[in-house]
Amino acid sequence: MRSNFSSRALALLAGVFLVAPAVPAHTKTGTLGANVRFVDYYVITCSDDGSGVPRSLSLQIRDDAPLAAPVLEVLVRKAAIATSINAAPADPGVFSPVISLNGGAGPYDVFVRKTGAAAENYTLSYHCMTGLNGTGLHTGTDLVQAQNQ
User: Fold this and answer.
1) In whole angstroms, what is the distance from residue 4 CA to residue 107 CA?
2) Count of domains forming the chain
3) For 122-147, b where at least 16 C-beta lie within 10 A, e where not — what string?
4) C-alpha angle with apex 127: 118 to 90, nearest 5 degrees?
5) Domain membership flag for residue 40
């Protein structure tokens, strides 16, 4: 009897841990035209949606087909702080390492650009988090495409 009770208790506990909610994935696909000067500009706003006050924004970028020579770059800034990351076409379909900016709640400016003259598709992944450097809980995250050039 004891072994039967233990098996049921373990199954119940495993079910509790397996049903934990996953972090929602926020992605935005985009296309930069052939002109080397094309830049996509987004405003991502981090807010408290009941999960807690945001302290950071985390980003990744992925180079999608067609895979031309340009390197994609994502730059994020808030007030006087900024950071960036590149995604080289040598790694098609693979997200770049995560970058985080510890800017707290409010709007962040995000720019996606390329280094060469060829059309390029990409996927941007973005998450507002309650902890520093992209840690903690996922919280309110809204993206608005501000401008394409």
Assistant:
1) 54
2) 1
3) bbbbbbbbbeeebebebbbbebeeee
4) 30
5) yes
Tell me the C-alpha distance between 83 and 129, whole Å: 17
Q: Coil, strand or helix: which one is 115?
A: coil
Q: What is the pLDDT of residues 129-138, one digit of tens each?
A: 999 999 999 9
* CATH number assigned to the domain comprising residue 34: 2.60.120.380
Per-position DSSP letters for 58-72, written without gaps between them:
EEEEEEESS--SPPE
Residue 92 resides in a domain: yes
* Structural domain of 61: 25-148
Q: The whole model's pTM is what? A: 0.79
> Does residue 90 belong to any structural domain of this protein?
yes
CB 110 within 8 A of CB 43: yes
